[in-house]
Amino acid sequence: MTYVEKNIIEIYSNLIDNLSSIGKMELLEKLRKSLNKEEISKEADFFNSFGAFSDEKSAEEIILEIKESRKFREKDLKL
Fold first, then answer.
1. Looking at 15-24, 31-40, 44-53, 57-66, which range is the least confident one?
2. Taking the domains of the chain in order of start, what are their residue ranges?
3. What is the pLDDT of residues 49-62, one digit of tens each?
4. CB neighbours of 19 closer than 8 A, spacing ≥ 6?
């Protein structure tokens, strides 16, 4: 934990001391949910990092589509 994080936690703990018990419980619930989202996000990022390409089309259809979309033009070079 960095020095900055420790200071942020100290500031927030001073603010939390003034909350009611119900407010503290609700804050704990929101913190728990944010931790769960972070875990899910990290897992999704891991699996997305493989560069997989998902599509309903077959590889042959994708290749054909790419080849058909190519545009060539003739250009005269005057030397």
1. 44-53
2. 20-69
3. 776 667 788 889 99
4. 27
Q: Do 52 and 59 meet the contact criterion of CB atoms below 8 Å apart?
A: no
Q: In angstroms, rounded to a whole number, what is the distance separating the alpha carbons of residues 26 and 8?
A: 20
Q: Are 28 and 19 in contact (CB under 8 A)?
A: no
pLDDT bracket for residue 76 (50, 70, 90): confident
Q: Is 51 left (phi over 0), alpha (psi -120 to 50) or beta?
A: left
1 CA to centre of own chain: 23
